[in-house]
Write a structure and sequence with these properties.
Elements (H helix, E strand, L loop, with lengths): L6 H14 L3 H6 L2 H15 L4 E5 L5 H9 L2 E6 L2 H10 L5 E5 L11 E7 L10 H11 E12 L16 E5 L5 E5 L5 H10 L2 E8 L3 E8 L5
Parallel strand pairs: 1-2, 1-4, 2-3, 4-5
Antiparallel strand pairs: 5-9, 6-7, 8-9
Helix pairs in contact: 3-4
Length: 222
């Protein structure tokens, strides 16, 4: 029997991204200029408009493109080191940053678009339904959830922890290791799971390694 993801793994996951912030862009994207071009294209294709919330903004690579499309943008991340880099990168007057853990963050605001990149794969299966209920509560009428993540076809690049099929071990340049949740996206499986909990979605592949998706509460289509 596979073990459930515990809170200490989630704490370790935040710690990993705090320590990785200074090296994240190069280690995650390689060619940062090429990644910025790709990100700008994907954001343009997804058309984020109005009041936008970005979850897990990291170092601001996607924030930079979102800021050009949104009327207002709230960007949150649990790693203050990453938020500091994002603040320095994106100085648009329509952007507000906050250091916050999405699993405990609350707001009275409602958003036309909620966006996250490379975040859904870090949500434990046991918290999937709760996470999407939270998103629904923060969406404005006719609001959309937009996301990008890694395709299941690149799953083999990770080393999974024995006994927990959604937790991988990550190593920083200094040799320290951390446990991180990683559920690569199978587009059809994600579509079906979202449908079960009341979301309509369209998920497309982008290249060999990424996907992009859009989801709306199913009642909007009735």
């Amino acid at each position: 029997m596979m073990r459930r993801v515990t809170d200490d793994v989630l704490t370790e996951q935040v710690g990993y991204y705090r320590h990785r912030a200074s090296e994240y862009d190069v280690t995650a994207y390689g060619d940062v200029a090429a990644a910025r071009t790709r990100i700008a294209r994907l954001v343009a294709q997804m058309h984020p408009r109005g009041r936008v919330l970005e979850i897990a903004c990291g170092t601001g690579m996607w924030t930079e493109a979102l800021a050009c499309a949104a009327d207002t943008l709230m960007a949150i991340d649990a790693a203050p080191e990453a938020v500091a880099i994002a603040r320095d990168r994106v100085r648009s007057g329509n952007v507000t940053f906050d250091v916050a853990d999405v699993f405990s963050w609350t707001t009275d605001d409602r958003f036309d678009v909620i966006f996250f990149s490379a975040w859904l794969s870090h949500v434990p299966s046991s918290r999937f339904d709760l996470f999407w209920r939270m998103l629904r509560s923060q969406l404005a009428e006719q609001g959309r959830v937009l996301f990008s993540d890694e395709h299941v076809d690149v799953r083999d690049k990770q080393a999974y922890v024995a006994g927990i099929d959604e937790v991988v071990e990550r190593r920083l340049d200094d040799g320290r290791t951390f446990r991180v949740v990683k559920n690569f996206v199978d587009p059809q499986a994600l579509h079906d799971r979202l449908l079960e909990i009341g979301w309509e979605s369209e998920i497309r592949r982008d290249g060999s390694d990424w996907i992009r998706g859009e989801a709306r509460p199913a009642e909007q289509h009735r």
